[in-house]
Amino acid sequence: MASTYGNNIKITIFGQSHGPAIGLTIEGLPAGMAIDEEALRTFMARRAPGGSLSTPRKEADEVEFISGVYQGRTCGVPLTAVIRNTNVRPQDYSSLHLIPRPGHADFTGHVKYGGYEDPTGGGHFSGRLTAPLCIAGALCMQLLGEEGIAVGAHIVAIGQVRDRLFDPIAVNANDFTAVKKHELPVMDEQQGIKMRSAIEQARAGGNSLGGVIECAAVGLPVGLGDPMMDGLESRISALVFAVPAVKGVEFGSGFAGSALWGSQNNDAFYVQDGQVRTRTNNHGGILGGISSGMPLIFRAAVKPTPSIAHEQNSVDLQAMQDATLKVTGRHDPCIVPRAVPVIEAAAAVAICDAFLEQKKYR
Amino acid sequence: MASTYGNNIKITIFGQSHGPAIGLTIEGLPAGMAIDEEALRTFMARRAPGGSLSTPRKEADEVEFISGVYQGRTCGVPLTAVIRNTNVRPQDYSSLHLIPRPGHADFTGHVKYGGYEDPTGGGHFSGRLTAPLCIAGALCMQLLGEEGIAVGAHIVAIGQVRDRLFDPIAVNANDFTAVKKHELPVMDEQQGIKMRSAIEQARAGGNSLGGVIECAAVGLPVGLGDPMMDGLESRISALVFAVPAVKGVEFGSGFAGSALWGSQNNDAFYVQDGQVRTRTNNHGGILGGISSGMPLIFRAAVKPTPSIAHEQNSVDLQAMQDATLKVTGRHDPCIVPRAVPVIEAAAAVAICDAFLEQKKYR
Amino acid sequence: MASTYGNNIKITIFGQSHGPAIGLTIEGLPAGMAIDEEALRTFMARRAPGGSLSTPRKEADEVEFISGVYQGRTCGVPLTAVIRNTNVRPQDYSSLHLIPRPGHADFTGHVKYGGYEDPTGGGHFSGRLTAPLCIAGALCMQLLGEEGIAVGAHIVAIGQVRDRLFDPIAVNANDFTAVKKHELPVMDEQQGIKMRSAIEQARAGGNSLGGVIECAAVGLPVGLGDPMMDGLESRISALVFAVPAVKGVEFGSGFAGSALWGSQNNDAFYVQDGQVRTRTNNHGGILGGISSGMPLIFRAAVKPTPSIAHEQNSVDLQAMQDATLKVTGRHDPCIVPRAVPVIEAAAAVAICDAFLEQKKYR
Amino acid sequence: MASTYGNNIKITIFGQSHGPAIGLTIEGLPAGMAIDEEALRTFMARRAPGGSLSTPRKEADEVEFISGVYQGRTCGVPLTAVIRNTNVRPQDYSSLHLIPRPGHADFTGHVKYGGYEDPTGGGHFSGRLTAPLCIAGALCMQLLGEEGIAVGAHIVAIGQVRDRLFDPIAVNANDFTAVKKHELPVMDEQQGIKMRSAIEQARAGGNSLGGVIECAAVGLPVGLGDPMMDGLESRISALVFAVPAVKGVEFGSGFAGSALWGSQNNDAFYVQDGQVRTRTNNHGGILGGISSGMPLIFRAAVKPTPSIAHEQNSVDLQAMQDATLKVTGRHDPCIVPRAVPVIEAAAAVAICDAFLEQKKYR
């Protein structure tokens, strides 16, 4: 089984990179939401390829709502959106069926599906499948926005170039706007320029880079999320790890916090303007799986794009012997910039799911 | 909603720290499994308090199977196990209802449940609730063991004391046995001794420490897990983050890998004895959410125990004004050692869930 | 997998008839509900054996809440209730393992679980497992009651003795009270007396009888339930068919309505006191899976108790040859009276699940 | 939430009658199934309108697989199929928004979705949404067929004209073939002719008829299904009640059986050719929710089509006053014939779900 997530906002993502279409079904959106097509387009454009830093594959990513919308508004029933795949070049991948690309799902998918997998462009495992997740994210952000909740992310590292983190106490929606003004969504534009150089160097060398994305959600009421398996960390990480190439997720002070004393890592409570707040935010806005009202903050580690132009060692799965492989086709030297809205989308869907859960009890 | 996990192995954990009992229901275990009570007791004992490094609270953790077992074997229907809470001292927590402990779920639970939460000992949020997870883990490990799959974990850091990692290529069940021979489950006993000192120092200072646990699963066939939201990373992280105090999870090269070149992080395939293997294991045994047959490896960051003996700043939730708090009661200065089997249990349940999923298609 | 139901109110039932205990876990109840122990006891007593018409097996059915309750109120986390099995006599069933009782799950359970099933008293398949469902029902009825929704049922047939149906337009909570005043919950006490005679005749002849139960829910707002697979008919029937011995469920005019003209079966709308109502109620309060505000009405067919004192033809599963069987032990000649609250419970849980679903969108 | 079903075969149905498209996503089909397009087309044609007895609306029902298929075979990932709506005439329904059609979901949908529902042609509530269910059914039948399991249905009543039932002991796949040879799928062609007359009479009178469909599945192994909420009756009824207009479901002897003595209704076991069978089949092939190996048999009551040409009493929802309504547009006087494959599809999906569940444990 596969590609379904959520209890209250339930999404099912379908499609293959070079099949007829990709898309998703979302259940649980309230009826009457006016689809903000402009906001959707803007959001999708952030994920779309085409910038000077990414793959030359042009994907129009035109979203068609084939279910769940009536006269421009959600009508309460399952919403299905599809994006036709127009610019497919399956021949680029014709040899992959037998010689799996290192770092990709070619090998594992081949074994899992007994040789019946769709090998073209990664099939259902392609990064292209994050486009439908962005549709879900845009709609959930619209819903959360009406409740005063905003979600935003930025790049904190590309390769070994690092930018500073969000201020875990003061981060707000203005920061989300500010980072988008740069070519790369960073806090410090100087670091963004260095990141751009690093990416261009990777491209020139036929190599690739990964990085780290930090995401925050602000405006959450206290009380979203549930204990144990439905805690916010569990809900969010389950969806963030569904994004191809993510190999690590940490909340608040995360791995660094695990090296501190308790007296350093604990966040003292205080009252301000009738609200309970914490002086520091090592807990990343989540205590016991439940939102504390402080900014929710997490970081995702994105591995370097496995598609590189170098000749690599692999195996011939039919002959079962060693082989070499040179990946051609169109690929990003670094998908981190395009992954930023995808991480936001994952966070927005997970938070929206917890938000609707909590609405039952108010 | 809360405390349910899984599609094929479905677990529901219930109970409060100082309520009548804690326990769980597991659905999906095959009928006819002889419950290995000795293995269960041994496994539970690793989580139990009582060592010189942990809380003096004595919990017998006697497991009673009240459903799903007949004549010592699983009988196919929901298995329910309960552990009576015998050594409860609710008065230790009598003041917590109004002055939440920093780093705990007291505040978020209070708001979420409108003041009706069980505040004694953390209620359902207590680390004590990991005991039922260990029951599930022990049973799932038994099932996986029959398939040649073993799961083991060790401490790689306590505070700032670090041990070396598992060898990501060669790790095997012998390593799991070896680390258990030390007082703390570590690779290098010298580091274990330093960790012990650090914990004793924390206790002496009324403080606490966190750390990092590394877990591996070996013997997995290729093909477990599913793309996107049911990928192994999503399945495992959702359950690992359900363990109180876990704030980060990374697979394979994780955060460090995100700073490498693609050419460094990609794991080259080769054929050995008719099996496809990889020369390195930065992917942590998972490609596209699906097991590659290489050791599955992940690390979890555990925050320092929030219960410390220092006076801390907090708030009086009734008066809505600042207050101070001194936590009394019995607490571990470092729960990392006791969390090791819990992380193993989480991994075992998640892998077992994916294993049964795949059995449908063989 | 087995014994879990629901999306918003999620119940998991566990236990075997002659195991240590039976019980259930309910997730999704709001925090702060004062458990009405008296109402629970009264409700459970209607299902309990012990009347002159039922089995002499005495079951105290004492409910212990081991999770989810704090100081007499729900505290928001999974609620688990157990009933210890005290009066077990496994030897009564000692021969059933090999010679399955006709009409019972002995044979199918034996094959499904590979001979590892618990054969004593039907194990998990026993009617005794409806006691936990009644706990869930009582709690859900309490919740629905606060919203002005009442659920009630009565016997419309025992064998060939039939009573009249609820008035599908005018049925209300007073009817639910009225039917409980009779020895058997019927509309017309004269028919109840005939039913009692029929049951006594069955007992005298070592035989058994089935019947039909009608259940209504009143006070529902318009809009509960969802289209297609989460329609109220689907939700309710899935849980009602979980009650052992139920072999048919029909809503509104049901099977009889399928023989009418559309012009007869359609229910005309009209406005009364600012509310939309229907002149007739052949739709049983559900249109398109969604509540119409009219009384929700359904009937369940209960097969005759399969345990009869006659010698019956069966098979010896070990020798794989024909055999005869005489069931001893303590059995009801007719479980219909005791099934009445169980059907109410199933309806209450299903409606409560739909009710919480809809609360998300108000 | 809405339109998702199943644990192992998971289907999500989307679309509105007069929206751009209808379709579904199926998860859980094994990779490598060659899509039998001819069988699919034949199956879909049985549901399609166009015969002399049904609506003149012509729907091509051309199925496009946009996900999950590669080179004509399932490739293991979510399968999505869409049918474009080509012959839509929304103006036929332009007045329905305010004056709900009796017997339809217009009123309940309007209230549930706060006036934002898609009112054209019933929207998501339309019988047209059974076409995607038929796609799922055809694929599941193909899968079951490889295991020797066949599913078939016939009409047992149209209005007051009744045909005989399947022989509950001897029914087999030949019967399924035989009934399809008649214009209406019946056992006794003479009764089919009378049914046809009744339908023509209904059409002539601007009226409509309902009926009863009986469905059987043969070749099931013993052991499919699970106790309580995942019993076969629960699984099947939940999906059959998702079919618009179904208001009753009974298994085996059903409602009639509830009037028998236990000694009459119990089905005696015997051994034949090394197999356990029953002499009668009042249990409809299901004991304790689990298949017994005897033919699985159930009947579904279908209400008369609510769309009739008579003037009917309704309400003006805007003015909140009584009103009359005359439904125009293209409608079937009796949908029972077209519902036959839909009921088969529902049964096939539910059985397939239970079949894959059981495969985990073999």
UniProtKB/TrEMBL annotation, chains A, B, C, D:
Cofactor: FMNH2
Residues reported in the UniProt entry to bind NADP(+): 47
List of residues binding FMN: 124-126, 288, 303-307, 330
Keyword line: Amino-acid biosynthesis, Aromatic amino acid biosynthesis, FAD, Flavoprotein, FMN, Lyase, NADP
EC nos: 4.2.3.5
Cellular component annotations (GO), alphabetically ordered: cytosol
Reaction catalyzed: 5-O-(1-carboxyvinyl)-3-phosphoshikimate = chorismate + phosphate
Domain of life: Bacteria
Pathway: Metabolic intermediate biosynthesis; chorismate biosynthesis; chorismate from D-erythrose 4-phosphate and phosphoenolpyruvate: step 7/7
A GO term, aspect molecular function: FMN binding
Entry-linked SUPFAM superfamilies: Chorismate synthase, AroC
GO BP terms, alphabetized: amino acid biosynthetic process; aromatic amino acid family biosynthetic process; chorismate biosynthetic process
Pfam families on file: Chorismate_synt (PF01264)
Keyword Amino-acid biosynthesis recorded: yes
Co-factor binding comment: Reduced FMN (FMNH(2)).
InterPro entries according to UniProt: Chorismate_synth, Chorismate_synth_AroC_sf, Chorismate_synthase_CS
Functional description taken from the UniProt entry: This reaction introduces a second double bond into the aromatic ring system.
Subunit structure: Homotetramer.
Family, per entry: Belongs to the chorismate synthase family.
Name this polypeptide is given: Chorismate synthase
Organism in which the protein naturally occurs: Candidatus Ventrousia excrementavium
